[in-house]
Amino acid sequence: MTKTKKKIKDKPNSSVSIFSSKNLKNVFKNYKKNQEQKKIKEIKLKKLAENNQIIKDRKDLRSWEERLSKESNKLKLKEEELKNKEKELKIKDDQQKIENKRLVKKDEDLGQIDKDLRLKEKDLKLKNDELFRKDIDLKAREEEQKKKEMRERRKKEKFLKEIMVQEEEQQKIEAMKLKEWEEQFDREQKMRERKEILKDERLKQRELSKLDTEDSNINNDLSTTLKNFDVDKTSEH
Known about the structure:
Elements: H1 2-10, H2 14-41, H3 47-66, H4 75-236
Helix pairs in contact: 2-3
């Protein structure tokens, strides 16, 4: 800036140069002011890039001011370039505003998503706690059911064992009764057989007695006959 002022003072026709330099200074001041206002609105992620761009633009402007005395015929072109750059910066700024709005909306959406996730996590934790309680209750019921089944099984086994003991006792009693009946039957059978034998013996004895009686009668008759025969024979003599 000091170099530019010195060059302007040393030049002839300083009225035109001063006028142009003032305009440029005003433009530069306005541009600088706009740049500083716009820098505030830029997001943190692109702040360094924009600062670098501003530094570059300042360097360009200082270079333009230093070359102004030699390139006055190109002033309009430079102004046009500056306007174009301002337009580009405005476009960038508008784009940055849109991007900022998008990022803000995205942050809001992410915040809502995070809130929803926290609610879902809370709900999931409640459900997990409920499932855990239900699982504990189920395990307790299963354990109680197992104990009940164990008691029922033991009771059943005891009952079956008692039945088996009773059946074994009953079988023993029946076996004893059967044995006693068989023994009684054998005794009665033997008694019947003895009775039959005695009956047969009695019948035989009777038959023998009858035969003896008949033999005796026959002998008696024979003796009588012989006696009679002897008597008759004696009488004949």
